[in-house]
Amino acid sequence: AKDNRNITEMFHHMATEIKNKILSS
Q1: SS3 for 1?
Q2: DSSP per-residue string spanning 1-25
Q3: What is the pLDDT of residues 1-25, one digit of tens each?
Q4: pTM
Q5: R_g of the chain computed on alpha carbons
Q6: 19/13 Cα distance (integer angstroms)
């Protein structure tokens, strides 16, 4: 369960970074 949550958090963080990159450019 912990690993699953960690992966979800990592995926969410990656999506946020991509979103910020798009908004920045």
Answers
A1: coil
A2: -HHHHHHHHHHHHHHHHHHHHHHH-
A3: 678 899 999 999 999 999 999 999 8
A4: 0.59
A5: 11
A6: 10
